[in-house]
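Quick question, first post here. What does this chain look like in 3D?
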Amino acid sequence: MAATAPTLAERVAAHIRAEIVAHRLRPGDTLPGEIELARRLGVSRGIVREGRRQLVAAGLIEVSNGRRAVVGKLGAAPLDGFLANAVATRQLAVDEVLELRQAIEIAIAGLAARRRTDADIVELDRHLARMRATVGRSGYLRHDLAFHRALARATHNPLFALLIESMREPLAASMRATHARRRSAREFAQAHATHEAICDAVRGGDAQGAENAMHAHFANVAAAFEH
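> Answer (accepted):
Ran it through. Tokens below.
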């Protein structure tokens, strides 16, 4: 079957993408206006708008009300929407999200232990203190999520931070599901203790200990789902 010829809007999108790939347009740069692009490419302003919409959906450019389009910076929005929709439409199950989290977050814990700065430890301790003050209550989940996001940032690899950020909604859903299965103060305390152990290992620069503590954290989560 012959390939379908690209539409005019797709050609506009391909032109702008090529400019970005060639670094003639860089993150944060303003794109030429609609009139200029339409004249340069020999298309209507409506075609330019449609081409830009394709790039907005792909996360390559951003458009704010009343402003010109700019080249987007690295962000989690495209993956965020994909994962959130996949979970919402039940194309991904919570336990599948947990498997992905475990694989990623064990690596995150080890890297964070090797690379954390004093500022990272201050941030982790701040979230941990808030978790400690809300163990067993609904507010705990917000601080728990913030702790895991801060841990990802402590790797100083932006891809890990973006992956965790992109999983924000399904991650929160998995945390709520786990929280709902715990029944006693002892179970909540045991779950929190795994976070304390992760932070202690990261603070001490113990990569293997941090990975082991994160593994224990997910073992605790799995145990909650066995009830």
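The mean pLDDT is 85.
The domain at 77-225 is CATH 1.20.120.530 (Four Helix Bundle (Hemerythrin (Met), subunit A)).
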